[in-house]
Write a structure and sequence with these properties.
With 78 residues, this protein is mainly α. The protein is built from 2 helices and no strands. The protein has helices at 11-27, 32-70. α1 runs antiparallel to α2. The chain is rod-shaped and about 70 Å long.
Length: 78
Amino acid sequence: MAVADEGRPPYEKARDELTELVKRLEAGGLTLEQSLELWERGERLATICEEWLEGARARLAAAIAQRSDNEPAPGTPF
């Protein structure tokens, strides 16, 4: 399991915060400055989520490749 980097929240926390920011932006009633601040924070959170997902994809690809390398060729006895 990956540990969050210093200052980098875990994927689930970043995703949940991003979801809340979107809800606040969609609800409206914010000043332009507040909206821009939320948007900028949302962009940072989206980047963090994407980095986590890319890392997960790479780990899965490595695990699948390792499994494929360790499987015997078809027709090979145990």
